[in-house]
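Dear Dr. V.,

Thank you for agreeing to look over these. As mentioned in my earlier message, I'm a first-year student in the group and I'm still getting used to reading structure tokens, so any feedback on how I've presented them would be very welcome. I ran two proteins. I've put each sequence directly above its structure. The first is here:
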Amino acid sequence: MAQLWGGRFTKETDQLVYDFNASISFDQRLYRQDIRGSMAHVRMLAKQGILSEAERDQILAGLEGILEDVEQGTLVISPAYEDIHSFVEANLINRIGEAGKKLHTGRSRNDQVALDMKLYIRDEIKETDVLLRKLLETLLGIMKEHIDTFMPGFTHLQKAQPVTLAHHMGAYFEMFRRDRGRLGDILRRMNTCPLGAGALAGTTYPLDREYTAKLLEFDEPTRNSMDSVSDRDYLIELLSALSTIMMHLSRFSEEVIIWNSNEYRFVEIDDAYSTGSSIMPQKKNPDIAELVRGKTGRVYGALMALLTSMKGIPLAYNKDMQEDKEQTFDAIDTGKACLTLFEGMLSTMKFSKEVMEDSARRGFTNATDAADYLVNHGVPFRDAHGIVGQLVLYCVERNMALDDMSLAKLRSFSPVFGEDIFTAISMKTCVDKRLTLGAPGRAVMEQVIREYEEYLG
């Protein structure tokens, strides 16, 4: 097939070279953006008197027909074309004739593909944000339901102090809220229109770049034509943000996997999000959580690949930049799929309240509160720390919790202990007396939940 750039050449491109150079196999997903950008460009050309109104209307009708036929499957995007731009333009010329040859006036494939990617990424950021919002809504629902579900908080994967499931879920709410903020930052920063930058040095045609930017819902045109066609910062930022989202999902998945184990039994994953074993009938595996954890590396790889591709490229456009698409597309698809499936798994998961609370009790998460009790009754902190350490050792050897001990036995370690010790070290007391902002106490958690409800609107 004749190329858009074939006039300079006297020989056909070697087929292997052509296949290696072509991008139609992956950039075909940009067809909507390519057609939308072309339609805005044509309207601007007619406004500026570069095209007649009749030519504008003919080209717009042709582009609308191509879009409709591709959407309905009656026009197949063929690998016979080098890229999506060639496919659209060649089909336009085939349908409307000479007027179609004027479509490319005042632009280059360099600013065209830069526009297509920005339009595509803008759409994908908005879709990813919707998925993050849905995950946040699920987290908030769990928080509201489990404000009094006590569980151990961990440091070093060791039981440390008692918290609530609401408090634990709130930590992930904060993570994913930051992720939404990062996506919003990228969207604001990238929302400048590169169309009109040409190959690298603009064009001699009297284009109205502000008008094109407005038609395509950009804030303004880009300010430097060389940067316009060679900027991939917004893709690197997006891949970085997706990597952070995946890191958060992976940490969450790791906890789900641990909590789902026979040793913990904190959660039961719904059958729809679990699989069994081909030889072990008792197994119920947390495959979705494991796959999300595994696919995190795939998104990290896309970020490192693009950073590596871009690190040595001089201004302006170079063919290396074609490598921005495949792995970006894959990272976006992976991130969106993981968000969707993880939210589905989380929303159907059952939490074992009694098991969680018993784990907190038997994990001596109230030991610090027992020491505080002694301090508040006049025992120096270092002595109180030693007394409670001896109590914990005694309980470990007998497989019991601190509040399983009798008052008499507690007093054998320190006569300071009184009847009120059992209230002081109950899970409810230990949690609810922590009332600084960010702590798990009921009153402050209710305040935070109200703030989260306002945030989600």
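The second protein is here, in the same arrangement:
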Amino acid sequence: MPTPQFAPPFTPAENLNTELRQRGFAVLDPQGTMAWIDAAFSELQDIIPSWNDLMPDRYLRDGGRYRRRRHACFVVQGGEVRQVPHRPHWQPVEYNALHGGMQRWFAPVEPEVVAAPVWNRLLAALTRAGEAVRPDHPTGSPWFIEAHQFRIDTTDGIGRPTPEGAHRDGVDVVAVLLVGRHAVKGGETRVFDAAGPSGRRFTLTEPGSVLLLDDARVIHESTPIQPLQAEGWRDTLVLTLRAGGFQGDGVDAGPVLV
């Protein structure tokens, strides 16, 4: 019997900040996403082909080959977006028991993607969500954003969007933008209250849909994907927003793995 697929609890873009404050998460449909970032869907489509040129993730500790990605880091201050020199991705083991505690160097996001007008609009919109979640963040202070282009495929027969399981990321806001799905089933999103038993489950299927999370309040995961044909994949753009610096700044970031 097929697993039931639950529809996302979409909210209008104008209610996004209220929803984040009240529930700790919010989901926008493609039209809501475009209104949120003030862009046309065609602008997002311009960067979608870049997901066909992601590099293998060589750090998967489960031995899998199902994840490809690119990574870049930015500082947003006073409405200005600035890309910083390429740097490793690092998380503490408290937030990522599987891959935390080590510096992971991923291939950089391609320059033409970063130069696309829709890219800066996405990052600027994310900082506005951060201001709703962190009203104590001083006006004019910088926000630190990490961007991850992901493709999870079915090379191994199954692909795991979150091999670390249900987790938080150790940031202020997480945004998961669905770029596309091809010939897969599964990939259900699950969001749980970090301080209680309540939770929601749903499946993002429309390219351009976005899930936003108050990372301090909720735990999230995505279930594995399985192929419907010989080859399938699920593409996402994951953006994390943090005040005070990038994770790994000023600490012993652990071994450098290249």
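From my reading of the second output: Residues 117-133 form the longest helix (17 residues). The mean pLDDT is 92. Does that match how you would interpret it?

Kind regards,
E.
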